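During the reporting period the student researcher (J.K.) took over the structure-prediction task from the postdoctoral fellow and processed the backlog of single-chain submissions. One of the processed entries is reproduced below for the supervisory committee.
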Amino acid sequence: MEKIPHPSLDEPKARGKAARKQVKPSGHSGWVPNAGRPDPVALLEEQNATREPDLVPVRHGRMMVSPFTFYRGAAKIMGADLKDTPTAGLTVQLCGDAHISNFGLYASPERTLLFDLNDFDETLPGPFEYDVKRMAASVTIAAQNNAFSRADARAATLESVKAYREAMADFAGMRTLDIWYARVSEQDVLTAVSTAARDKKEAKSANKRAKKTVGKARTRDSLQALSKLAERVDGQYRIVTQPPVIIPLTEVAASRGISADQIEEGIHDQFRAYRATLPDERRHLLEQFELVDAARKVVGVGSVGTGAYIVLLQGRDQDDPLFLQVKEATTSVLEDHLPKSRYAQHGERVVHGQRMMQAASDIFLGWTKGIEADRYLYWRQLRDMKGSAEIETMLPANLAFYAGVCGHTLARAHARSGDPIAIAEYLGQDDRFDKSITDFSERYADQNERDFRSFTDAIRTGRLQALEGV
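J.K. obtained the following structure tokens:
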């Protein structure tokens, strides 16, 4: 039996101090790309090889909107760059793609709105700096995308890292269970919005925007999804075709020479396998719903082209719907450079990473092995009061505030799986780490701009195909 260590308080502090000697908190500045850096377009083409061919142009079209949307789809490129950056040797469960558009609102099982990370496709244990750099660089790139001054972009980025460092210091002083129970609720966000405002007028405007976002999130549930995504056909709800974004699986199967009976059998087999991964009480709950329809549905930016589906279930009657989302879980981009996942199935990797990092997780999280060889899936609710901030419309003060909330949230997620005492000791009480990561972020934003130009050039010359506006 594995012996689990339980160190005294002095030991993690000593680890943190030793880490400072290994890599100084100021040692993350001065980043330059390696001379042998891989061609970013070739890395995207490598990913495209295993994706749905008809959706690859959609992915490219979404990525070419701006350097910020390109960055959202370029986790593999950044993963290749991060492997050569200095790390202090302090491991946490990484989100793996912690850019600021991957934070947002969702409902806890108690129906309380929480703010947290919401995308874990790339999750893997690794150096805590990877997530911090991915987050901070996204702030800089978003600020540049919004035409902020260099000073405003730098201030927002500094705020994200400062919030991470200060939150980690707070978590280092907490008892173990208090860290596990910590969360950012909608009221916490609304209170923080008011506190951060510089005057009453700004507070009133910020509160109005925040309450609008919260109110919109509360309307996003399976009933709302039913009104948007389905229609009655012969007395039964069916998912509406909206090609190429939404295509019923019967149509997808027909294009591949698979009969309707075969696809129906395959869907029910997958659904039974998925139910088996749930705890008994949640499996009992799910068994009260019957499967009605399923479709392929394109989502996101970076994940476009991987398998992504929606499943319509019905409870006691047609006004009792439940929409589930089924997403393909591919190998984490970080597994190219970090130890492989302990989980044989990537869907299981995603589910356990999400449960480790989120303050509360979807009650319907589960996984299956896909029908095709080496394909893995994870399941969750499609819409469960999910809400997201409109990054592209934020003003400097709004982005700085939002970046700080993201930094705090990321620290809480890392404190659950890592050693907050050691990490806090490494980060220290001054701003050397903040400035160092901000310098990295500015340099990486410049590289992202160059990569974006290479990407759009590849589309212009016909090396890559793109479908815009989808």
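The committee noted the following: Residues 432-460 form the longest helix (29 residues).
J.K. will present the remaining backlog at the next meeting.
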